[in-house]
Specification:
single chain; 446 residues; alpha+beta; five-stranded parallel β-sheet; five-stranded antiparallel β-sheet; 17 strands
Length: 446
């Protein structure tokens, strides 16, 4: 996970330039009340103060960790980019530093000659730096070294410090600039790391969601398969709609499409569970009312609350491909198209309730004659609930049937038919559809 962004606390008057300010060489043992005061400026008008607060960056705070802070030539007029004094906190060891390391500290100036507590003498010259980087992963760190030890300073930067400074060359202007640079570089590095981690998570989510989409099992079947899927959630690959197609050993092709109410990741996960359960039950030999009753039990056990339900349409096509059994659980009826005949919706008369609504419900299985050559389209309500232009009416099933008839007359079929239909529905809606859309097409040709 990305490192959380430090939360900036309110700056007390003693640190905000309206009260006592820490002297550059104050020790950690001194209380804030005893810190030497900087001259107070006349209070600006309230309007000017408000304007400054909205445009001026937060005043910088430096934590100096050195066993002899008074020996470091830090000038009292250490200024930030806005010309304000940089607040200084000092600690003589890492124990004191840990107590002073609060969220409003922006940068740490660390003497590399300090010993690292709790570490054996293993010859690691940067042990103290490694300890501080573990202690303060969100803070910018400047390494302080001697003139004859610049190689260790360069190595400190490779280990994780933002820069290193030579003690004998230190002055107020150089240190002020180094602090500002280190803080901005740390912010940039943190932002870049969070962006990279976000991209990695997005890639992992896409791979996961692709793996959750079904792979049709149609080996040995003469039927052609096509599908189109468009989730309603922004930047998602998987929604609450689900579908699947499998061929059982007796040659029967079973197809299913469903819709879990809602559009979030929980609904998407439940849809995947129902799809996997449907495939397992179908391959185990269940169909019709027995299969849907078992799926309802799965839904009731897996849903996050009792208000969640799912609609479902199942079709089992006989091995000869001329007839099929149809079960509807609160779901729109499929569309059947045959050569020389207008596309039409299959009967909806024996539709049962959606899964999860009525305990002990039944779902009649209807027998449907398909013929020798046909196309059967199963879809979710996202395809028919989009708006039509400025009038704001729903496309509806009648509008969808007319659209498919027109596209079939143009000679479209398979993937091209589904892609064109979904794009047309989106265009009629005047933009992206808010609901998930899934469309499945099975074709039988001579």
């Amino acid at each position: 996970m990305p490192a959380p962004v430090p939360r900036q606390r309110a700056i007390p008057a003693a640190e905000g330039g309206q009260g006592p300010v820490a002297a550059p060489n104050e020790s950690a043992q001194e209380s804030p009340e005893n810190r030497t005061a900087a001259p107070e400026a006349a209070a600006p008008p309230a309007a000017a103060t408000a304007a400054t607060a909205t445009t001026t960056p937060a005043q910088l705070t430096l934590l100096l960790i050195e066993n002899d802070p008074g020996g470091t030539p830090i000038v009292p007029d250490l200024l930030d980019q806005a010309g304000r004094p940089i607040r200084i906190r000092t600690a003589r060891n890492l124990t004191e530093a840990e107590r002073l390391l609060t969220d409003d500290v922006h940068c740490i100036l660390l003497d590399l000659a300090l010993p690292a507590p709790g570490r054996a003498d293993d010859g690691d010259e940067l042990a103290v730096l490694r300890h501080v980087l573990e202690l303060a992963p969100r803070h910018a760190v400047l390494a302080l070294t001697g003139a004859d030890d610049t190689e260790r300073g360069a190595e400190a930067v490779r280990v994780g410090a933002q820069d290193y400074l030579v003690r004998d060359e230190l002055d107020g202007r150089l240190l002020s600039r180094a602090i500002r640079y280190a803080v901005e570089r740390k912010r940039s590095d943190s932002a870049e790391r969070r962006l990279a981690e976000g991209r990695l998570r997005a890639q992992e989510n896409r791979r996961l969601e692709r793996g959750l989409l079904p792979t049709p099992l149609l080996d040995g079947s003469p039927l052609r398969f096509a599908a189109r899927y468009r989730p309603g959630r922004s930047r998602a690959l998987l929604g609450g709609d689900f579908y699947d197609v499998v061929r059982t050993p007796d040659g029967t092709v079973h197809a299913m499409i469903g819709d879990v109410c809602g559009h979030g990741p929980d609904e998407a996960a439940l849809g995947v569970e129902l799809r996997i359960a449907w495939r397992a039950l179908t391959l185990a030999g269940l169909c019709g009312d027995q299969l849907l009753g078992t799926l309802q039990q799965v839904l009731e056990h897996e849903r996050p609350d009792d208000e969640i339900f799912a609609t479902l349409c199942t079709v089992d096509i006989a091995p000869d491909g001329r007839r099929a059994g149809l079960c509807l659980a609160g779901h729109p009826s499929p569309l059947l198209a045959r050569p020389g005949m207008p596309a039409r919706l299959l009967p909806y008369d024996n539709n049962g309730p959606a899964l999860g609504l009525l305990p002990g419900a039944r779902w009649p299985r209807m027998q449907v004659e398909l013929g020798a050559e046909w196309s059967l389209m199963l879809y979710t309500d996202g395809l028919i609930e989009g708006r039509v232009g400025d009038i704001g009416e729903r496309l509806g099933q009648d509008g969808m049937v007319e659209m498919i008839r027109r596209r079939l007359a143009e000679g479209l079929s398979g993937e091209e038919l589904l892609r064109t239909a979904v794009n047309e529905v989106r265009d009629l809606n005047g933009g992206e559809l808010t609901d998930d859309v899934a469309v499945l097409l099975l074709d039988r040709t001579r």
